[in-house]
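just leaving the lab so this will be short. what follows is a protein written twice so to speak, once as letters and once as structure tokens for the fold. can you read through it and tell me how you think this chain folds. thanks a lot i owe you, the record is right below.

___
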Amino acid sequence: MFRSKVKTILLAVSVTIMAASLISYPQESFQASIRGLNMWWEIVFPSLLPFFIVSEMLIGFGVVKFIGVLLEPFMRPLFKVPGVGGFVWAMGMASGFPAGAKLTARLRQEGNLTRIEAERLASFTNCSNPLFIFGAVSVGFFHNAHLGILLAISHYLGNMCVGLLMRFYGKDERLTRSGRHKKFKIREALAALHRTRIKDNRPIGKLLGDAVTSSIQTLLMIGGFIILFSVINKLLFHLQVTAFLANGVDMVLSSISFSEMLSIPFISGLFEITLGSQLISQVQEATLRQQAITTSFILAFSGFSVLAQVASIFAQADIRFRPFFFARILHGFFAGIFSFLLWEPFYIRIAGSNVPQDAVPVLLQGGENMFSISHFAIAELGPLITLSSLIIYIIILYRRQRV
């Protein structure tokens, strides 16, 4: 009871301080809000919406169940999750935060995952997508396409290590029959696909409409968190809280011979990874290796903005947040360690003196790589896609309310 009262007081005081800060720094808060809105409007919404809609339709048509039966022999021994986890893992890597959490919650609601399996799966299916790592971070901020390869490999290797470690988390809540999933069973997978489609007897138009409305509702929630944490990050800077926290980070960075100038960008990255990555790239006192390791950590941790989005999604599906938060810390350390270990044997060989400055891997040829071109194309067309999608969403809601 006492802890509950203390929590209530702390929450009330925190919200009051935030309200007072908004009044004290209206211009700064407005600029931070616009920055968060632009990020959601131009990049996040148009890049995530197609994945969310297609994922909902794949679940409804039974394709995810089909994939789950096929991937059971791979996912169960490695990560102790059903085969549908392979679909979530692939979609999470392709679309980025917080797609893995949304799909995990959706499958949990459908009864395809137990609570423990959902918590295991969510721990390693939330990651940055290649578009963001290569287009925004490596090319956009660091102007170094080679660095994106190191960041991506470290990020996804760290993610896999988290999944392998989290397989030991919790006790299995259901037993699988011995030998059932030792072979790929195409016939069983096709039967599961058909059963799922028959069970979900919604017409295609209804299914598509539900997929659009569900996806846009989730993205509206995500946009609210992005704007909120963009403002919080700016207010903490002006209230000198960031500088205060940076003093403690300075001690840690000094102990590992890192530049202390990375402390404030690191704290900013803990709240919002895009701003943190940009600030880290501007620290001239740090070596590129130090910048890469620090960026790897905050990309893997994903920032409190994404964590808040995931917590909100989990609350709708009876999934505990604490294992996910622990996994994000593990992922941060794994990604940073891989960036450190792979720097000389991997990055130096690609971008070092033995390789001409204009020599670029196949995926990165042509001056700007395919990921950066895609990133900037989304930024150009993003507002139009967002506006059109919102209009369609309003029309669907209006028609359903009239029925």
About this structure: Confidence is low (pLDDT under 50) at residues 177-181, 353-368. Residues 28-402 form one domain.
